[in-house]
Design goal:
Elements (H helix, E strand, L loop, with lengths): L16 E8 L3 H13 L2 E7 L2 H10 L4 E5 L7 H9 L9 E5 L4 H9 L4 E4 L4 H14 L5 H14 L3 H14 L3 H13 L3 H9 L8 H13 L3 H14 L4 H13 L3 H13 L4 H13 L3 H8 L10 H13 L3 H14 L4 H13 L3 H14 L4 H10 L2
Parallel strand pairs: 1-2, 1-3, 3-4, 4-5
Helix pairs in contact: 2-3, 6-7, 6-8, 7-8, 8-9, 8-10, 9-10, 10-11, 11-12, 12-13, 12-14, 14-15, 14-16, 15-16, 16-17, 17-18, 18-19, 18-20, 19-20
Length: 392
């Protein structure tokens, strides 16, 4: 983006900060400009990424104090990066400042629902950037003991310690009727398959004040109870409330499929496709078709992915398993090879590839693959057994 688009005088604040900042933007000019702005203001611990996937690698390699990310990026948007951060029990407290080229209320709502602590609109000045970074950092600090407990409840939920999260949630609600806590409680109940309790909890909330996140969860709960009409209606409302959230639409398509309304499901999926889906959205659509046994349709969407992240490997693995069960060994082998490019350190993937090689009488390749699996995890008993069957 040309620098002339950015307004405001350059007024270095002459501070020195030890904060480690990660800036994520696919445009080199934008990265350079933010680098200059931050250097002018004493931010010297800077790293830059040109994609969400690269950002996740950098976050994993060294702790960060703040992520500043652009919204519009190919393959993984800034919001999808935000969701990856906020869904990780080790990272969810990492503050994120989202930068967008427009202040559309729907964008702000979407980013806030996914957990962003700050939102900055282009064009912005140097002072705007620094001020919003400081505000974002400040918002990430719990204001009181209740806020600290809510963070701990979220950590427990993300760590799949649902019962402990529920106990803490009950304690918090005795002191403060927090919509965040009610949502977390209902999510835990849903994940524990205590659907009636979740419905009852949701019924105590004011329908008009429900967020699209709560409404979407309510739809999923109804679907789990086999109440397809109610589930679909709730999901439709959630989509209307947050129309930029393509994941909501994919949930709705899944609900239509579950209710046997295939034409409606296909229309929703086509709507997502028309909006140029990201890798994560393509993978989610593929899983819908895998759930229906439509292996080739799933493959069509997986083949459109450009640079999928490690978290998508389970869906590729499910696809490869379906291909193997259909005796399409060459196709399955190709998918496992792609999986290993995404996650080369998975002993399970190396083992699965070894099994396919063995079934195809590619014994030497099978031995190499199983050896790779055991090098990563010597305790992999399945790989040990297969190595014994293959011989030395």
């Amino acid at each position: 983006m040309p620098m002339s688009l950015y307004h405001g005088a350059v007024r270095p604040l002459r501070r020195s900060t030890d904060k480690h900042i990660l800036v994520v933007d696919d445009q080199p000019a934008m990265r350079d400009m933010i680098r200059m702005m931050l250097r002018n203001n004493g931010y010297n611990h800077l790293q830059f990424a040109d994609s969400g996937k690269a950002a996740l690698r950098l976050i994993a390699s060294h702790p960060k104090d703040l992520v500043v990310t652009d919204w519009n990026m190919p393959n993984m948007t800034g919001v999808e990066l935000l969701k990856q951060i906020k869904s990780d029990p080790a990272l969810f407290t990492l503050p994120v400042l989202m930068i967008s080229d427009e202040s559309d209320s729907e964008k702000v709502l979407f980013a806030l629902e996914e957990g962003t602590e700050g939102f900055l609109v282009k064009p912005f000045s140097e002072i705007d950037l620094v001020k919003n970074m400081e505000m974002t950092l400040a918002k990430s600090v719990p204001k009181d003991e209740i806020d600290r407990l809510i963070l701990e409840m979220r950590r427990l939920k993300l760590s799949k310690k649902y019962r402990e999260a529920l106990e803490l949630g009950a304690t918090i609600l005795e002191s403060r009727k927090s919509p965040k806590v009610i949502t977390l409680v209902c999510e835990c109940l849903y994940l524990l398959e205590e659907f009636d309790r979740a419905i009852s909890m949701m019924a105590d909330t004011d329908q008009k004040s429900r967020s699209s996140e709560q409404t979407n969860l309510l739809g999923k709960i109804h679907l789990s109870l086999g109440q397809y009409s109610q589930g679909i209606e709730a999901l439709k409302v959630a989509v209307k409330m947050n129309p930029l959230n393509q994941d909501r639409k994919i949930d709705l398509a899944g609900a239509y499929f579950a209710a046997g309304k295939d034409e409606e499901a296909e229309r929703v999926i086509q709507n997502v496709v028309n909006a140029k889906p990201t890798d994560l959205q393509l993978v989610s659509i593929a899983q819908l078709y895998l759930d229906r046994g439509a292996v080739d349709r799933a493959g069509e969407y997986l083949k459109q992915t450009v640079d999928p992240i490690r978290e998508t490997v389970p869906v590729f693995n499910n696809y490869a398993v379906a291909l193997r069960q259909a005796d399409r060994l060459d196709d399955a082998t190709e998918i496992y090879q792609k999986c290993l490019k995404i996650d080369p350190d998975s002993d399970v993937l190396h083992y699965n590839l070894a099994v396919l090689y063995a079934k195809s009488d590619r014994i030497q390749e099978a031995r190499e693959a199983v050896a790779n699996a055991l090098k990563i995890n010597p305790e992999n008993n399945f790989a040990q057994d297969l190595l014994g069957k293959l011989g030395v």
